[in-house]
Design a protein that fits this description.
alpha/beta; Rossmann fold; Histone, subunit A
Length: 313
């Protein structure tokens, strides 16, 4: 790779990002930096599908096992850690390969980070409903009146950013354009980001998710959660799909005999989560999407990517 290149592998859960990142790192002499908000927690291994030492194949991994599950973690903390790690990897003459599906983490690196108010789901749902009922032009007109500068920057067609700007206005009472101190993105810092998105057949991906959850239960997810429940999960740690469902079930049924319903619920929740990830990344700019058929091994995907076989979608 060219000097200062930072390679991203993004996409929905269970799409093969981690395996592909390891294979690319072996080929390029690289190191992997996780962009997964759940992998930062120590001891949360089975439910996060954390790669084992064997699966990492000797490739150094970063962004994994950073903090105990009792502590919260933020996108701001991740960005600070990731920028230091990217710099250190390149100082060693290695290629940084960032793999993960946490969209906020990826965006914070690519576009920078602004200390804006956090998301308010209730307000966002209300604005989304208004967009459906009255149309996006009505929301844009409101933003144009409240904050003309930010409205002109966004334009009248980007619903996600229009809603986010109005959300900031309603939460903080401040104009979004008045929120200063945005940190620079990777390009502004002198790096050359290349972002590759993994595109899978949806039904095949859902099958992979179902099999992964089955494997988690076979590997001892319930035992892992029982052990972790000896101390509290932080608010952000408990957001991990699988952990919340098992914790809730164990609290209601300390000695449950049948886990089939919980397993099915985790599979369904994970499928919905993958769909949301796919929707998120599909709206992001600059991603080079590659199609990965189920019959194609990771070795062929590595060759395809390194020979520039990208397509825009």
């Amino acid at each position: 790779m060219k000097a200062n290149t930072v390679l991203f592998i993004v996409g929905p859960t269970a799409s093969g990002k981690s395996e592909l990142a390891v294979a690319l790192a072996k080929k390029l002499g690289g190191e992997v930096l996780s962009a997964d908000s759940m992998l930062v927690y120590k001891d949360m291994d089975i439910g996060t599908a954390k790669l084992t030492r064997t699966e990492r194949r000797g490739v150094p991994h970063h962004g994994i096992d950073l903090i105990p599950r009792t502590r919260n973690f933020s996108v701001f903390a991740y960005r600070q850690y990731a920028l230091r790690t990217i710099k250190d990897i390149q100082k060693r003459g290695k290629a940084p390969i960032i793999a993960g599906g946490t969209g906020f983490y990826v965006r914070a690196l690519l576009e920078g980070f602004s200390p804006q108010p956090g998301a308010n789901p209730a307000i966002r749902r209300k604005l989304e409903a208004e967009a459906r009922l009255r149309g996006l032009p009505a929301l844009y007109k409101r933003l144009l009146k409240a904050d003309p500068k930010r409205a002109r920057e966004i334009g009248p067609h980007n619903q996600r950013r229009i809603i986010r700007a109005l959300e900031i206005l309603m939460v903080s009472g401040k104009k979004p354009s008045a929120v200063s101190g945005k940190s620079p993105g990777l390009r502004e810092l002198g790096y050359r980001p290349v972002v590759i998105g993994i595109h899978r057949d949806r039904q095949a991906l859902y099958g992979r998710i179902n099999r992964r959850v089955d494997k988690m239960f076979r590997n001892g997810l319930v035992r892992e959660v029982r052990r972790l429940m000896r101390s509290k999960f932080s608010r952000t740690a408990l957001q991990g799909v699988g952990y919340k469902e098992v914790v809730e079930h164990l609290k209601a049924h300390p000695e449950p005999a049948d886990w089939s319903g919980v397993k099915e619920r985790i599979q369904k929740t994970t499928r919905h989560f993958a769909k949301r990830q796919w929707t998120w990344f599909k709206r992001e700019r600059g991603i080079r999407w590659v199609w990965w058929p189920e019959t194609v091994p990771v070795s062929k995907m590595v060759k395809f990517i390194l020979h520039g076989g990208f397509y825009a979608r």
